[in-house]
Amino acid sequence: TDKEIKLTDTETLNCSATLKGHLQGISDLCWSRDGNFIASASDDARVMVWDKRTSSCIREFSGHNNYVFNVAFNPASTLLASGSFDETIKIWDTLGNKCLNTLPAHADPVSGLDYSPDGTLLASCSYDGLIRIWDSSNGNCLKTFIDNDNPPLSHVKFSPNGKYLLSSSLDSKIRLWNVQAAKPIKTYQGHKNQKFCCYSTFFSADDNSQFVLSRSDENKFYIWDLQSKSISFVIECHSGPVLAVDACSSNLLIASGSTDGDKSIKLWKFNK
Q1: Nearest to 149 by CA among 123, 195, 187, 120
Q2: Which domains does the chain have, with CATH numbers?
Q3: pLDDT tens digits for 169-221?
Q4: Which residues belong to any copy of the WDR5-like beta-propeller domain (predicted)?
């Protein structure tokens, strides 16, 4: 809500830069694959792209007529997708600095976006309970996923091989979908997610064991075994609800953040 982005060095925990430019609160951030650029989505209905090396804004995209809720770079960082409360997805050309396509994507706010690892597909989800898979080259909708319970959806994430998709929903469930079959094959439960948008992601340990990581409306985050669906770890980490969590498999770090209570970001070293 302070309209700023702060970059923190994970080694020293010192703030290395503060990025200012948005006029209202920031809902989502996305790093480019090479780690040099950051895209931000804001309630001011704008998307901004920042150069981490110079701490400066290099692109500003306007066109949504309501809050921008999420952003996602394609793997080459040549395209940037943004999802909005105006129920559309916009595809931006980061090199040409223009909007390439506007997709009338959902019947409710777009709550999650993710490109497949090869960049050919874009997944979106919404409070309307639908997941849609789009052809990133032309914006055509290729598939629509819907669960029998049709809960509001808050996040989607492709697996590293692009064959599966994680979806988080406001019924306190995380589902693993087979992208080709457009069907859920596993469900992860135990956390609470009925109030806030829930981020979930894949996570690998150094012995190649696979996990699913997610935040919770409680002061905890959860780690499940990907295959067995059993809860491997529950980490009580903050004095209020955990609003954000992410992981870096290469150095086994997990970051968690909370706004209520301690208003902090914490780094955790994963040790199986």
Answers
A1: 187
A2: 4-195 (2.130.10.10), 196-272 (no CATH)
A3: 999 999 999 999 999 999 999 998 777 777 899 999 877 889 999 988 888 89
A4: 2-269
